[in-house]
Amino acid sequence: MYKPMFVLAGLMVLVTVTFAQSADVSSVRKTVEAFALAADQSDVDRLDALLHPEFRIAMNRLFGSQDLVLMSKAGYLEKIRAKEFGGTPRTLVMTDVQVKGTTATVSAVFKGSSMSFHSYLTLVQDAGGQWRVVQDVPVLD
User: Fold this and answer.
1) H or E element, residue 85
2) Cα separation, 106 vs 29, whole angstroms
């Protein structure tokens, strides 16, 4: 009689963990959708709120460069302000979302009228429970 109660309790814990992970995946997806929309709309204030203070873009050999170029949050937001980045509607397809504790990775495809790329995003959950994009590694399609 004791054993079935233990299995039931174990099952309840498993369901709780699965529900929590599902909620985190949903929150991560919403954050990435908001990030994409804010960039498409050149909404610097919204992007500033969605990006971690240590946000970086790692562009490896993009746009004819032979080097890895790292761009800070401030640099990225300035490119958005100057209309050098963003401002164009794109479709977003998240091909993979993984959450492990307070860190998440997202593989996403962004397709626009002039450019398409695959991005590998890393997100972290802050002490208040909000997901923030901390890294973007784009690869041109």
Assistant:
1) none
2) 8
Other CB atoms within a 10 A radius of the CB of residue 131 amount to 25
The residue behind tokens 């041109």 is: 140
What's the burial of 117, exposed, middle or buried (CB within 10 Å: 0-12/13-18/19+)?
A: middle
Reading the chain (141 residues) residue by residue, the pLDDT tens digits are 333 444 445 444 333 344 456 779 999 999 999 999 999 999 999 999 999 999 999 999 877 888 899 999 999 999 999 998 888 899 999 999 999 999 999 999 999 988 899 999 999 999 999 999 999 999 987
How many CB atoms neighbour CB 15 within 10 A? 10
According to CATH, what is the number of the domain 2-140? Answer: 3.10.450.50
For the entire predicted model, the pTM comes to 0.83
CA 77, CA 71: separation in Å to the nearest integer? 10
The two tokens of residue 94 are 């998240």
